[in-house]
Amino acid sequence: MIPAHADVVIVGGGSCGCVLAAGLSDDPDRTVLLLEEGTAFGSASAVPREIRDAAVLPVGPESPWTADFPGRLTSDVQATVTRGRVLGGSGAVNGAYFVRARPDDFASWPASWSYEEVLPSFRAVETDTDVPGDLHGSSGPIPVARVPRERMHPLSRAFVDASESAGFAPVADLNAPGPDGVGAVPSNMRDGTRVGPFLAYLAPVLDRPNLTVAGGVSATRVVMAGGRAVGVEIAGPDGPRTISAGYVIVAAGAVRSPQLLMLSGIGPADELGRLGIDPLHDLPGVGRDFSDHPEFAVPYRFRPGLPSHTLLLETVLHTENLELRPYTAAFGAAIPGSGVADPVLGVVLTRPRSRGRIVLDERDPRRPPLLDYRYLTDPADRQALEEGVRLAADLLAATTGVVEAGSVDARGGRLGTSLHLSGTCRMGDDENAVVDEWCRVRGIEGLSVVDTSVFPQVPSRGPHATAVMLAYRVAATARDALPHTV
Length: 486
Ligand SMILES: Cc1cc2nc3c(=O)[nH]c(=O)nc-3n(C[C@H](O)[C@H](O)[C@H](O)COP(=O)(O)OP(=O)(O)OC[C@H]3O[C@@H](n4cnc5c(N)ncnc54)[C@H](O)[C@@H]3O)c2cc1C
Hints:
Elements: E1 5-11, H1 15-24, E2 32-36, H2 49-52, E3 66-74, E4 77-84, H3 115-125, E5 126-128, E6 142-144, H4 154-165, E7 170-171, E8 182-184, E9 189-190, E10 193-194, H5 197-202, E11 211-215, E12 218-225, E13 228-236, E14 239-250, H6 253-263, E15 266-267, H7 269-274, E16 281-282, E17 294-302, E18 315-319, E19 322-326, H8 331-334, E20 344-349, E21 357-359, E22 370-372, H9 379-397, E23 402-405, H10 408-411, E24 414-417, E25 447-449, H11 464-478
Bound molecules: flavin-adenine dinucleotide.
Flavin-adenine dinucleotide binds near residues 57, 452 and 462.
């Protein structure tokens, strides 16, 4: 049963929402209500096999665990952008590549988020099963493991060999600061099971009497009174109603968090007014200047007879502004229904300069918004990606087992997105910042946004480990400050 009031209401049971709900309900004197639009599992054992299997991304067109959004990558490339819609969120359906942001990524964050400040939280969330030492955790709930070189798919091994022959250095631990090179992907998995924030953080505490998790419930508006968030309007199986809240945390992900703020009258006032939304609080940065990694797919075929079902990505090469990802499984095998028969070498721009924005649907702002990426609008991005594609072609030509490498022109290499959307409600103190350094919405009491929306920009690596670290650290910091019942 959904209570009429909770001390803290968290909107969105995704990667960050699960970690926040576990951290904040750790205090038995605080009631916490977690609202998730997708399916909520009542226990770890209720999680279906396709969500557990780290070799499969359960995100195809038929997936019941995702929501799709219209995306415009460039003026002439459209895309469907997938996000998790299930307890565990995008972290329940993702590639299980659990890599930390680099120390220099935190230069764009407030000083309280320097690499030195966040390292203890990176350590606290993980148990690294391969690498001992001070850089890694040994008692956190997320297991981090790598496929050793000798057990990699022959294609991954051959790619590592080709990279090293081309002069790139081997890197033993991609989660350690240090020079770029080629190394094994750190994955949040144990014995082939994807262990995301639901299984790691929330499932073990679901029986707490002060924690309610409600699935199939969508927050439609944050209710405001006198400059303060006082509740959440929801739509669920029992129809619409309002929940009162001592504090509201929006963790609906980088698409839906800014949309929910705007539907609540928090955002660029002129734009909200045009859409018929009463602008309660002018924050021009909501939904603006987001960043994500453009990813160009170079198709290839490898010698018949090699294993086809494997972890999708076992090794990557980092160099300057690029990540090269030799996906070993055909996307058709790893993403049911994707229809992509050949494996691809992904060429990712890790520090893109171009910025995009979320555009609400003028017909009805409650409909899925358009993600206008404006990829490659900065000429430096286009040039770097083209260099990456040339490097990919050279490395594929030198990779033993590759029998046909798609020339990008001939086989139609494709521009896509890595699905690492960040920065739609940026942290900071400039006029376009939406939240302060502790994720509190600027100028409003009782309201925070805690998810990848608040990253000042997309990290130069996948964002998942950084998202979990963020939620863990915010929960730990807010533990005493947020409302309690007694
Ligand atoms: C297919 C895919 C593969 C990826 N692979 C990787 C990878 O291998 N490595 C990596 O580092 N990153 C990867 N990412 C990115 C990473 O998983 C995400 O950045 C991260 O999980 C985002 O966490 P979040 O908490 O910000 O949002 P999410 O995990 O997306 O959570 C948002 C949650 O809020 C819920 N919600 C939304 N609106 C409402 C509402 N109004 N009311 C109630 N609930 C709502 C959603 O259903 C969802 O469960 C991938 C992403 C995708 C989609």
